[in-house]
Amino acid sequence: MLQHSSEAGLVTLPRTLAIWPPLDFALGAAACCGACVFTNPLEVVKTRLQLQGELRARGSYQRHYHGVLQALWAVAKADGLRGLQKGLSVGLLYQGVMNGVRLGFYSYSEASGFTRAPGGSLLAGATAGALGAFVASPAYLVKTHLQAQTVAAIAVGHQHNHVGVSSAFVSIYRAQGIVGLWRGVNGAVPRVMVGSAVQLATFSSAKEWVVSQQWYKQDLFGLLCSCSPFD
């Protein structure tokens, strides 16, 4: 138990559960992969909308996609329901690696006491996000290539025509070398750094505040509810 002094006396708080680091890594990765299955169709549509009209003057190209719902219908009509899950396998790889590294590193920072220092949560969250984004960047690149691929009738952007995930990695490596696999990493790292710093620091602070308010009895249910996926 942890004790914090106050004017009214001592407030006893439950100590958060310690999870074996490899298991922490696996749980964080599994949770994010589960979410990826449901959000991947939106990722496919987002990629198509962003590539539509690439390097073309406005009004000089045919618009195949006119919004999220219409784009979902167009993809399903042209490619079938499987088309909405294009790039899913490498998307799961990206989420598993990126969030496994991100949450695992933040969990280690919490266990070491680094996050208790002023600004420690923000710094640990940003560093965790940068590491995760850098390590998983090749998977994100391949995911984007595969999600852009479709039949000629609704194709937008450059079509790389990869046969599969492994062939995509090989073809990018052969054409551009090892550096080519990390193309765009300079944009991915700052984006994930900011999001990770805000998300993880906010969650940790909110959890500590809820625990300090003692809104629940100190039983197993309350203790588990106070723990984050990276505790």
How would you characterize this protein structure?
This protein is mostly helical and 231 residues long. Mean pLDDT is 83; it is low at 1-16. The longest helix has 31 residues, at 21-51. It is elongated. A hairpin with a 2-residue loop joins strand 1 (2-6) and strand 2 (9-13). Helix 1 packs across helix 2 (68-79). The two termini are 16 Å apart. It has helices at residues 21-51, 68-79, 88-112, 120-148, 165-180, 185-213, 220-225; strands at residues 2-6, 9-13.
At a glance:
With 231 residues, this protein is mainly alpha-helical. The protein contains seven helices and two strands.
Essential attributes:
231 residues; two-stranded antiparallel ribbon; elongated; disordered N terminus; Solute carrier family 25 member 34; transmembrane; mitochondrion
Helix content: 55-70%
Number of strands: 2
What's the alpha carbon Rg, rounded to whole Å? 22 Å
Strand pairing plus helix content: what structural class?
A: mainly alpha
Q: pLDDT under 50 segments (min length 5)?
A: 1-16
What is the count of DSSP helices, taking H or I runs of 4+ residues?
7
Proportion of residues in β-strands: under 5%
InterPro entries: MCP_dom_sf, MCP_transmembrane, Mito_Carrier_Antiporter
Membrane topology: Multi-pass membrane protein
Subcellular location: Mitochondrion inner membrane
Keywords: Membrane, Mitochondrion, Mitochondrion inner membrane, Repeat, Transmembrane, Transmembrane helix, Transport
